[in-house]
Amino acid sequence: MTMAALPAQGARKSFLEALRSSPIANLVSLRYFILRFSTAGSALLAGLIQTFVFARVLEPELFSIYILVGTLGISMWLFDLGLPKILFVELRARHLAGESKEQIAQQANALALLYAALVGIGVLICFAVMAARPSVSTSDSTWQAAAFALFFLFSALNLVWFVLRNLSIAVDEFIYFETLEALRRVVHIAVMLAMLIGLPFAVFLLAANALWVVLFTLAVKRLLARGALTRQLRGVFSRLGTFFRINRKAALRTGTHAASELYIHNVMYLAVPLVFGLGAPTIVLDTTFKVFFGTLVLYSAACDLLVPKQTAAYAARDARTLIRATVMAALLCAAPAIAIGALLMFAANDLFALLLGPAATMPAAITPILLVLLAAGVAKTVANFLLQHTGFFRDISRLALAIAAGTTAVVAIGVIAKLDLIQLLAIYTAAYACGSLLYLALAIVKPIRLAPHSQEG
What is the pTM of this model? Predict the structure, then answer.
């Protein structure tokens, strides 16, 4: 070891010791803290790298179509209906109480298989629609349709992965799951960057989906060992029926909430291409939301860290610990918000020019819009996580539906008034910020105030 390496080693040791003695260490595993933020940061980086690479290997119009296909794949979340959260609440309660998890594991099997089937149907529909598009030749049309379908599959499989994430957290296997997530992000980024040195786009699509196969295999094996899934695959339909019969009201509420949230996050993807067309406007919108949604992933990582402590405190009716954990979640969310906000304030032009190259030019007015979205996202994510994981499904479903209606009205008014892209994004941002404040108020009134008294299903 060289003398120069000694100070660096001492600095790392001091940093880790400071973390271990910080309030964070009393609320969350240090290893999980580092790992979760690493995967969340790489998720944000992966989104930006995808924009960087696609802008250089695809024509602008084809790039914008892949944006829409990927958005439709992510929109398979519409079928999520918040049902994994119901499984989480039930499985977490049994895990903490040391009770049998077999019944919930059987329902988890059925739900994961249902989501996989829905993704498969979506892939077939995507292929059929894209194959029907005009093309130079039948072979070109078939290849393009297959490529779009593979990209749709790559995006849509997040729907099934989310079920396994919730199950892993419920049985305290979050560190193993995040290790798999880290593998996923590193390999995905590496394969994308390889396209810049000549890797064919088709190979990227095949490799990205092959990676999913490996990840699902490893995750399912660990969840089987922990009793969160079962090897019994017979009777899937009857178990789905049992799940929906037992959780009918909760499923309706979580479904309303999930669909409303998905709509709120994607309504601009519907409005902008219809009003302004494909090409630069859609690319500008997608780049804006890549930064925003990528930062939301960081916020989710922060909130994920505190979910085990929050849910244990709520189950024990320990309001003090619940409040401490929630405040810590907010502080952890604020850190990336401030860092990314500062980067945008001082280097937005250079950042966006690097990402997009000749594909499009980001207007300077995007920066203040993003700053407001980042701040609003902190309040909404912290409140939403707490409300979901403590089972306040009825309240969040009503609130999300009201916010979706308000957002629709605001965007519709903007379209009718013929606002330009920046103005439309600005009024959408205002509506999003108002909705975030409502979520925050609900979190204070419900789980925090009621923690010592009762839990709603």
Answer: 0.68
